[in-house]
Design a protein that fits this description.
alpha/beta; Hypothetical Protein Ychn, Chain: A; globular; Sulphur_relay_TusD/DsrE; DsrEFH-like; Sulphur_relay_DsrE/F-like
C-alpha cells in the first residue's frame, strides 16, 4: 500500500503590479499548477503595487490580458481568500466600502473578492501555510 503524499498549503504574496511586472502572471500560473497538483492555497495577499490587481477600474486594451479580471475569476472559482494590504491600497487610491466611508470618498474600486485588511491577515496565512511564496518585480 502506497502512502498518499501530503497536501501542501501555500500562501502567495504578490507585490508586483500588473502590466509593469511579471509577478501577477507568474503567481497565477503557479497557483493554477498548485491546485492541479492537488495542493491548496491558504490565501493570496496583495502588497505594494500588487494591490492594483484588486482594482475594478482596470480596463486594459482588448488585445491585452485583463490580469485583474483573470485573478478575480480564479479566486472566485476556487473560493480562495484574498487580501489587499490596507496601507498599500490607500496609498494607491484603492478603497472598499469601509475605507470609502472612513475617508469620506464617493467611490469604491476594490473588487468584491478581496478583503482590505492589515498585515495580520498576512501573518495568519503564513502560519496556516506550509510555504509562502513572494512574487515581486524580477521574479519569485
Amino acid at each position: 500500500m502506497t502512502a498518499q503524499p501530503a497536501t501542501a498549503r501555500f500562501t502567495l504574496v504578490i507585490s508586483g503590479a500588473p502590466y509593469t511586472s511579471q509577478a501577477p502572471q507568474s503567481a497565477l500560473r503557479f497557483a493554477e499548477a498548485v491546485l492541479s497538483a492537488g495542493h491548496a492555497i491558504e490565501r493570496v495577499f496583495l502588497y505594494g503595487d500588487g494591490v492594483h490587481l484588486a482594482s475594478s477600474y482596470a480596463a486594459p486594451p482588448s488585445d491585452e490580458p485583463d490580469w485583474p479580471e483573470m485573478w478575480a475569476e480564479f479566486l472566485q472559482q476556487h473560493r480562495i481568500a484574498a487580501t489587499c494590504c490596507v496601507a498599500s491600497a490607500l496609498r494607491r487610491g484603492l478603497l472598499d466600502h469601509t475605507e470609502a466611508r472612513r475617508y469620506q470618498r464617493p467611490g469604491v474600486n476594490v473588487r468584491s473578492c478581496y478583503t482590505v485588511a492589515g498585515l495580520g491577515d498576512w501573518l495568519e496565512a503564513e502560519q496556516a501555510a506550509d510555504r509562502t511564496l513572494y512574487f515581486k518585480d524580477g521574479g519569485v
